[in-house]
């Protein structure tokens, strides 16, 4: 059993749904991102079921994976999108998504981005500062429209996750301190070009417990009740994203577990009418993808063994950036014995930080294929061309079919727009 239900062994070969990964490597080369369409559908289904009978809008946090085909699949299933840039909005539109189901987050929205979002008719701006509130109001006034706004508050709760992906603490740049929210809402009430629709928070990522959400919710409920007194009646409550996935043996919180508690707390406080918005990214795509890579060389040293593979930190930066652990499967594994060496899996990039996994016991030979698991989220979207490495192709498997959803970049394309001096 691997960590990803749609990437399993058949006849000692790791498959994506019904397609052997070895076949994809042969056909499309490596490194290669391979996604499972059914995994996307199942992830969506777990949220849909959790929200049944209630008003729930899932706005996929597309920064996790913004390939157009993936957005298209989610749009067809009925999701909205959480965007953080004008670029992401353009992708939603290109993929056929409904801008009316888009929430626009992010601390640094520029004027052109606000204009584009108003023109597209997004559901809501998740406003992250007083300055931004004023700017959104000005742009809307100039365009003679009303901007739907929601304030992102920072509830100061510890999501218990890596400092780089924890966002709900006082010291983070995100949102406004929750005790200032009533005053900022009062200001919003004075601005005729704003339409106050909700309140928002996002406390972090790869969260594996319900309690941080409930701590945040508790504070938000108090705020919502106080706002009511102030004459601000909200339509929705956005609890952000953050549900974790299984990279190794984590016990997870399911959308149903989370939402059951959320709905109960709202009902208890007479707030059952609120629409709930969620912004899941990782849990929608993380285990829908692997990064396929081939062993170039094995280097056995005195204290360490290295497997030098053709994927690198430019393809998957999470290990070196967050010390993240991704499980690694040999696509055609040989039995591991006591004398099987342990390897650090490293890429060809000229940095000591260029590693993808450490201290893994694998019976390897040159040219072996490896699957780096859980690479559907924050892998391609964080990829770069460092060392003039073309970004790898992306393949989406549907049953026994494989679709190229992004071809491998060509070398020429990497510098095609650069200019030599006269
Ligand atoms: N909403 C907002 C406002 C966010 O900032 C994020 C993620 C999400 C939703 C989606 O969160 P998720 O459900 O994916 O946890 N690159 C890091 C993760 C950074 C998350 C940034 N914000 C990683 O690879 O672990």
Describe this structure as you would to a colleague:
It is a single chain. This protein is 29% helix and 25% strand. With 422 residues, it is an alpha/beta fold. It has two domains: 7-36 and 286-414, Beta Barrel (Lyase, Ornithine Decarboxylase, Chain A, domain 1), CATH 2.40.37; 105-280, TIM Barrel (Alpha-Beta Barrel), CATH 3.20.20.10. The strands form three sheets. Strands 4, 14, 15, 16, 17, 18, 19, 20 and 21 form a nine-stranded mixed β-sheet that branches. Strand 14 and strand 15 (305-309) form a beta hairpin. Bound molecules: ligand LLP. The site of ligand LLP has 20 residues, from helix 10 and helix 11. It catalyses: meso-2,6-diaminopimelate + H(+) = L-lysine + CO2.
* CATH architecture classification of the largest domain: Alpha-Beta Barrel
User: How many domains make up the coordinates?
Assistant: 2
Rounded mean pLDDT score: 96
CATH homologous superfamily heading of the largest domain: Alanine racemase
Number of strands: 21
Strand content: 15-25%
Gist of the model:
By secondary structure, the chain is of the alpha/beta class.
Protein topology:
Layout lengths: L6 E4 L2 E4 L2 E2 H8 L3 E5 H15 L4 E6 L6 H10 L2 E4 L2 H9 L7 E3 L6 H10 L3 E4 L2 H14 L3 E8 L21 E2 L3 H10 L3 E7 L10 H19 L6 E3 L16 H14 L6 E4 L3 H4 L3 E12 L4 E5 L8 H5 L5 E3 L11 E5 L8 E7 L7 E4 L20 E6 L2 E6 L4 H5 L7
Parallel strand pairs: 4-20, 5-6, 5-13, 6-7, 7-8, 8-9, 9-10, 9-11, 11-12, 12-13, 15-17
Antiparallel strand pairs: 1-2, 2-3, 4-14, 14-15, 14-19, 16-19, 17-18, 20-21
Helix pairs in contact: 2-3, 2-9, 5-6, 8-9
The structure holds ligand LLP.
